[in-house]
Specification:
The structure is a homodimer of 332-residue chains. By secondary structure, chain A is an alpha/beta fold. Chain A has helices spanning 48-53, 128-140, 157-168, 180-188, 203-210, 224-231, 261-267, 283-296, 315-321, and strands spanning 2-8, 21-27, 36-44, 73-80, 90-93, 100-103, 108-111, 148-152, 172-177, 194-197, 215-220, 234-242, 256-258, 270-273, 303-307, 327-331. Strand 14 of chain A pairs antiparallel with strand 14 of chain B, so a sheet runs across the interface.
Chain lengths: 332, 332
């Protein structure tokens, strides 16, 4: 029995590619007193990993060269000398890209209790993606029945959840995504009322057509040109959630864009930044709602599952090239 | 008895200057059935008058050439055949730049009941300026005790009220104004804890020094470079009120500026446009609070009073060159 690991072998500048990683095998560790051993079944691949791999100031120190890549994962406790955790418990946490992780509990985000649902959901719709979609829409956007909701990266793991939850809340939903396949997915799989291909269409004109009375809620994952286009179509009292800025690669010095001041003024609109961790004490509420909709079949999840540990090496790059369709997961 | 009027004689492009106006005299009109005659004592001079004088789409049609300039004013009812209004009532409304106005009541904003306070206050601190300051600060900025509040155009009629109300609410107040005289006025007259001269200082650095823990509330009347500088100093959870955009002269096409998305995201900040008319049903509440503070001597008002009707002709220009110190009023 060995512990396969995907280690960060070279320091990337920008997006980590397969060439920055190497496979390693070590002995499976034994948990000491106050520790447990977790056997991971699924690893997560998240945009934040770019920042963790780079040698730049961040909210966490850079991943050391030679160490397993830092990542969220879900797995089963296979041995425990840690109070509160028993063999067979399913846990989700920051266990890294490896088969087995020893933990004193500090890496654990939570015990996964929705064992009737696919376990990998703990990394997406029941994890930070779902929390982000839920609170960004209900709190930051304050979405109400009858609102017209526009979502960028609408076929992505967060955006697709935002669109579906918006629909469940009674909104008219308009998704923006790149390419005909993702637009189809928005319409057929995630039930958007309209979908716009930003690679092929004039986004401002298309939003104007899809939202003739203006945009009440805009859930933005992009910043950049897509955001600029949507901002020209605000309804009075619009609420904009700034959740991510995927279209902007460099923030220092600040990139220029059209000033939003007058758009916000004329529409009496509000633009608010969302960091989902601020809602940590309400995750349970969101998870209960999301799990309910998943069980009812009213919320659909698209996962892009890579097989085997080697596939993880090129996975972060896939996120940034848009090659994934759905939440990117590595099944170990 | 004649009715002196300041009429719009030529159509301005941009800021109306003295040369666009002419004096006229007509007979004092007689109120018909359902009308009253108001004798104006004070005329208001407001930035919005630029838009009213220009031949451009606006929320009101352009002032016709040859007509008295549209303006707010306050005066006394001297004859009434209109139910609800009696001789001696003091009324504030859109009566135009003239000695006497006939009104069927539709021009009236309200009866002025704070007759113990200077009547001209109805055009400023107890009018839209005060309403804007009060709701922008308490609602849009949601100012709380202990907040650090930054105000641009801090020596102006709105900004000086925002700073003083902020102080009364328990905020630490930082004013931004142009020139040493206005900075002195901010400190000595309006009680700001700190004041910054944007013409002489590096605004970002000065805000950083005056607000070392970051800016919780920013009441912005400028947009442009001052706003860009303050945005680099946001505290977590900051609230920005976009009240005016005095620093930007042309919005079509949209002028470029540093993107605010990441600043809003990292600070979980919120930027909201304020149109004071949205609070019309709560003006009474604001007016009661403001009048109370005025009577207590806890709220100071600086008026810049021009004498006689001729002085009105160059008054709008003064607003845009910053030549006025305090709320600009014409005493008829």
């Amino acid at each position: 029995m060995t512990n396969r690991q995907v280690i960060l072998a070279r320091r990337p500048v920008g997006v980590p590619k397969a060439s920055h990683f190497e496979m390693a095998e070590t002995a499976v560790p034994s948990p000491g007193a106050g520790q447990m051993l977790v056997k991971l079944s699924h690893w997560s691949v998240d945009p934040a990993m770019r920042g963790w791999a780079n040698d730049a100031p961040n909210y966490l120190p850079p991943v050391p060269l030679g160490a397993p890549m830092r990542a969220f994962g879900v797995g089963e406790v296979v041995a425990s000398r840690l109070e509160g955790y028993a063999e067979g418990d399913v846990v989700e946490g920051m266990f890294g890209w490896q088969d087995y992780a020893v933990s004193d509990g500090s890496e654990v985000n939570r015990k996964v209790t929705e064992t009737d649902l696919p376990r990998s959901y703990a990394l997406g719709i029941l994890g930070l993606n779902g929390m982000t979609a839920y609170f960004g829409l209900t709190e930051t956007c304050a979405a109400r029945p009858g609102d017209t909701l526009v979502v960028s990266t609408a076929a992505g793991s967060v955006g697709s959840a935002v669109g579906q939850i918006g629909k469940l809340l009674g909104c008219r939903t308009v998704g923006i995504a790149g390419g005909a396949a993702k637009v189809r997915q928005c319409l057929d799989e995630f039930g958007f009322d309209a979908a716009i291909d930003y690679k092929a269409q004039d986004v401002a004109a298309a939003v104007g057509e899809a939202a003739p009375e203006g945009v009440d809620c805009y859930f933005d994952n992009t910043s950049g040109a897509i955001s600029d286009a949507v901002m020209t179509r605000l309804a009075r009292g619009a609420r904009i959630c700034i959740c991510g800025t995927a279209a902007i690669t460099e923030w220092s010095p600040l990139p220029m864009g059209p000033r939003v001041h007058r758009q916000l003024l004329v529409a009496r609109a509000r633009m608010t930044g969302l960091i989902v961790f601020d809602y940590a004490d309400r995750y349970g509420e969101a998870r209960a709602a999301l799990a309910g909709w998943l069980r009812d079949g009213r919320l659909r999840v698209r996962e892009h599952v890579l097989q085997g540990p080697e596939a993880a090496m090129g996975a972060i790059e896939m996120l940034y090239s848009g090659a994934n369709t759905g939440k990117l997961i590595v099944e170990v």
